[in-house]
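Data's thin. Show one?
=====
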Amino acid sequence: MEAASTAVLLINKWAELETVAKITHEKGKKNESQAANGTSSFHFNDVFSLENEGSDDMTTLIDKKDNVFVMSNKKSKYPVLQVDLRLISDLVVVVVSAAIGGIIFSCIGQPVIVGYLLAGSIIGPGGLNFISEMVQVETVAQFGVVFLLFALGLEFSLTKLKVVGPVAVLGGLLQIAILMFLCGITAMLCGAKLSEGIFVGCFLSMSSTAVVVKFLVERNSNNALHGQVTIGTLIFQDCAVGLLFALLPVLGGNSGILQGMMSMGKLLLVLSIYLSVASVLTWSFVPRFLKLMIQLSSQTNELYQLAAVAFCLLSAWCTDKLGLSLELGSFVAGVMISTTDFAQRTLDQVEPIRNLFAALFLSSIGMIIHVQFLWTHVDILLASVILVVVVKTTFAAMVTKIFGYSAKTSFLVGVLLAQIGEFAFVLLSRASNLHLVEGKMYLLLLGTTALSLEFSCAGFPQKAAIRMRRKYPSLKLTDCCDL
């Protein structure tokens, strides 16, 4: 009896009990007359339902955070392979809908990112509600974040950053600091938390590397002065993403300022140690390891591809265990390989995996977007997008002008950086997990980001350049068309 009470005390001390609702799905009896003559009614959602004669004992668990888990692994005295058919069905629906959305938006000349988001919003709970296992789908989709940042690290180039170093690094840092300060002050004046305002400033400071670089390359402007400044700033922002991920747990904490500063100091110490170890491994281990993988996979790239993915996941796992973030670890893994001669080869191998999981991730983000919310608050969203474009253009142009660039170059850089980037979705997802941003603010930032990307790719930069041509008649037409 004493041993039992001791065990109970230990359990209460070390374990956190959680109330879980258990739901057992029992198939109702069919109408015998309908079953006999085959006249049972047809429902469109039945196409996506996998309920069959053997699924009547499927159990669903709902935790205290309203997360839904399907217990598909039945007990058996024999070791057998278990298959979650519902999850497979959901993944098929997500991938197919993302492909359709991406194809449609690509055909009309718009970014496929918006197509993925829209497809997710249509099939999600706020739309047709085709997805049964949201938690499982979102968990698998998190690999998209890991591989996105891994590929971003592989494309990292310190040489490109040095070309326009001062304006890219100092100017980019100044833009982030200004937006963080303004949003923090605004949040305090509006009665919101300072940490939420600082996050919104970080969130708004990100611009879309993929959209802007593609835009510049299509117009042969990537080697122009404004193109170099813009790309340099984008590279710095991409680097800052990793550090912002390390900052989010501090912002999401409930401790005071002193405790937060101590946590930040500890975090920076751990980060410094990790980066030091990573830098040593970069020149001592990584090149030899990749060279060995190439030799072992001379006939096929299968082993090299698997080794690259494993290296990325291992680095992400290490940073997560150190209290940093999965995203930072995957980015550092990419940067480590980018310093070797195998960066492009690795990127070629990882890119298909990245594209698949990135589409899955963006679609899962879209599933959170409620179409009704967007329609109800369309006026607020449009006003937010216009405000974001004006504010980001103004501050980016002002900062660029401070570093001695002409008014034309400064304005073009500001226009190109006016949207919110796709990695803001990753930041927003992480902030939501930390309960830093919730509710309507989350949906508002989500919708504003999607609309700003759409607005950016709908021809705003070209029209802005034409207006600038009218304002400065001395400029050559080709100067503005170079945008």
Remarks:
- Residues 257-284 form the longest helix (28 residues).
- Residues 1-19, 32-39, 50-56, 475-483 have pLDDT under 50 and may be disordered.
- The longest strand covers residues 21-24.
